[in-house]
Amino acid sequence: MGMFLRLWIAGLLFFIAFAFAGAEPWAFSVVQAGVLIALSVWLCSRRIFIATPLLKIVLGTLGFLIFFCALQASFPTTLLAAVPWFPASLMPLFTWEHASLFITYAAVVAVVSQLADCSNALKQFALAVGLCGLAVALCALCLPDGEYIRLLVGIRGGMGPFFNRNHAGIFLAMCAVVSLGYGVASFLDYARFAAEHRKNQFFWRQVFFAVMFISLVLGVVFTRSRGGMLAVLTGIFGYTFLCVSLVPYRWKTRLKGLLITFTVFLLCSGWILTHTQQINAFAHRASGTSEETRKMLYRAGWTLLKERPVWGIGVGALPVAITPYMEWQLPSYVERLHCDWLELLLGLGWGGFLPLAGGVLWFGVMALARLKKLRTRKKFLFASVLSALLVMGVGCLVDFDLFIPATGILFFLIIGMACSASYDKEHLQGYSLFPVCLGGILLLALSSCYVPLQKTIAWRLHLFGRGLLPQRQVQIYAQALQHYPAPRYALYLGNAYIKQSLQTQEPSERVALRAQANRVAVSYLTKYPKEKELSRLYLSTWAQK
Asked: Per-residue pLDDT tens for 497-520?
């Protein structure tokens, strides 16, 4: 059963990478259903939950995050209301959706930590991660514009199976660092292969690992993602620092290795700083628009945070709150702040972010302490796991990788590997899973699927309604809004009413349809004031009612 579940989780990893990075609602619903099945099978096949200190920290931090989101979503507020003294969300629907996302991540950590309970299982997961990244890189090489994405959904992809090259870069960077650790750890098997007279097999296996690692690094470079290139460089040097400082037994060897590594790091950093224009040109970002837009969004986020510093605006509520604080309007709908850490701070406020940051810092300190005590063979793989987490941390500074399912699932799968019982056999604790606990965990997993499933149904209805006649389109969009009452779907419905009014010949019917559009705009502007597109809809219908 353990092998079946490992293959199942690996299959989900491949699926979400190639299902448009899981960005489409239906794709993430499929992944959630797969995680739920894995959780159910695991709970039915085992009666004891093995917890390491690192796993307790991770699940405790995610549990706090889920509880805080649920608390915020239970007390909705608006931008026009006074700042409450308790956590509240400006967009409870989006906050519930993010709580569902965090529940899924917690389930991934819980399942993987139990399946990666020995060295062989850890190596299997590491190999699956490397192969998945290699498959993504090959797909990107063969289909650089995401042709199959364009064929299936009519959207031009950014880099192979990913819509966005920045997320592809971080995904491949994490895969590259994990595969590096796997290759280095496998190199220590030379004595066993030599004793069994299998030197040729060992040689070709190491050649394959080297090719896989180099291919993944080149894949990161040719995504033309500057964040991905910075992250993979940071991950490689982070891995080197950890190995050099912890593995050699003689202090002179350590000092010499650290000096060489630090010198190379400074040389690489200097080269990057002196060739910024060439890197920007290679990344097709020579104009500087991307940096200026990000800086503008960061300033807008800080300004909004100053108004609600204690409890924030609610996780996920950024799209309905950020527009009035932006220095200039962007042509696209702003959904993310392009810095996960700042967006979490804005969503949680200092009251929620400080405990979250404390959990992350505690995990890092405990993980480094655990790394010191491991045997040399395990140090190499565990160091690569920690370095891959560092890659994601760097990526989250300049983009929104935590909220993209493909990068998020991979990140928490790697966290599950770090929480493996194989790394901490001295401090294991087993917890019996009684039927009540089993039912509660399954209910929790089911609840994580409800909001995304409603979003998937609404997404499908909207997609189906695009080519219909206005009268039928109004009906379809109204159904979508019932399933997922988001401002964007309200805007679709209001515009459908206006489109229908333009095609009718009866003046009274035209007025009635515009009045319907006006009511939709007023209803949602009451909940989400200062929403730009809804305000335009209201003004256009108010003037012509």
From this structure: 888 888 877 778 888 888 888 888
Supply the pLDDT for residue 287. Answer: 55
Dist. CA 378–CA 342, nearest whole Å: 34
Nearest CA to 34 out of 91, 108, 101 is that of 108
Query: Under 8 Å CB-to-CB from 478, ≥6 apart: which residues?
Result: 493
> Which phi and psi angles does 135 have, rounded to 5°?
-65, -40
Q: Which stretches of 5-157 are assigned E, i.e. beta strand?
A: 48-51
One-letter-per-residue 3-state SS of 439-482 = HHHHHHHHHHHHHHHHHHHHHHHHHHHCCCCHHHHHHHHHHHHH
Q: Contact 385/181 with Cβ under 8 angstroms?
A: yes
Q: What's the rounded Cα separation, in Å, for the pair 292 and 362?
A: 34
pLDDT lower than 50: segments of the chain: none
**pLDDT score recorded for residue 392:** 94
Place of tokens 């699932």: 409
pTM: 0.91
Q: Which ranges in 275-373 belong to alpha helices (H)? A: 276-282, 289-307, 318-321, 340-373
Chain segment 205-216, per-residue pLDDT in tens: 888 888 999 999
Neighbours of 92 (CB within 10 A): 21
What are residue 50's DSSP bridge partners?
A: 430
How many CB atoms are closer than 10 A to CB 408?
25
Angle between helices 119-142 and 376-398 (to 10 degrees): 40
